[in-house]
Amino acid sequence: MMPSDGDHVLRLDVESGELKTFETNHLLGKNVHKNKFQGGVVTPWNVIYAIPANANHVLRIDASSNSVSVLSTEISGSRRCKFQGAFFSSIDEACYFLPEHSDSILRISKNEDVEFISLPS
């Protein structure tokens, strides 16, 4: 479960009912407190990418290895509420993050190449 205002990712094992948390402050820094992420997008390779709202990095949750990290590409700019939604495209096996106040669409490929696609003027 995504940490919107929280500092942890919550993992629920649906078979055992076990709950586990992963702390994220060491990954994101202490500068973002509210509305870090707006949900996430699930991939067929068991990775969940959290949609960055006020965070400056994409949070990567690997459900296979039970690990949490961030993608190295920084989302620059001081705008808040950068992205609002996202989807996975099976056509090119990439995730697309839809802008709320960003000037671009964020695309993450299966091998985690990060691309910013500029919106038309």
SSE diagram, text form:
Elements: E1 8-12, E2 19-23, H1 25-28, E3 37-42, E4 47-52, E5 59-62, E6 67-70, E7 83-89, E8 94-99, E9 104-109, E10 114-118
Antiparallel strand pairs: 1-2, 3-4, 4-5, 5-6, 7-8, 8-9, 9-10
Tell me the structural class. Answer: mainly beta
Q: Can you tell me the residue ranges where pLDDT is under 50 for at least 5 consecutive residues?
A: none
User: Which percent band covers the strand fraction?
Assistant: 35-45%
Describe the strand arrangement of the main beta sheet, using strand numbers: 3-4-5-6
Q: Give the N-terminus to C-terminus distance in angstroms.
A: 35 Å
What do we call the CATH topology? Methylamine Dehydrogenase, Chain H
CATH architecture: 7 Propeller
Element-by-element helix/strand order: EEHEEEEEEEE
What portion of residues is helical? under 10%
Q: Short summary of the structure?
A:
This protein has one helix spanning 25-28, and strands spanning 8-12, 19-23, 37-42, 47-52, 59-62, 67-70, 83-89, 94-99, 104-109, 114-118. It is mainly β and 121 residues long. The protein has a 4-stranded antiparallel sheet, with no helix packed on it.
Provide a descriptive summary of the structure in words.
The protein is mainly beta and 121 residues long. The chain contains one helix and ten strands; from the N terminus they run E-E-H-E-E-E-E-E-E-E-E. The protein has a four-stranded antiparallel β-sheet, with no helix packed on it.
Supply the key terms.
1 helix, 10 strands, four-stranded antiparallel beta sheet, Methylamine Dehydrogenase, Chain H, 121 residues, 3% helix, mainly beta, globular
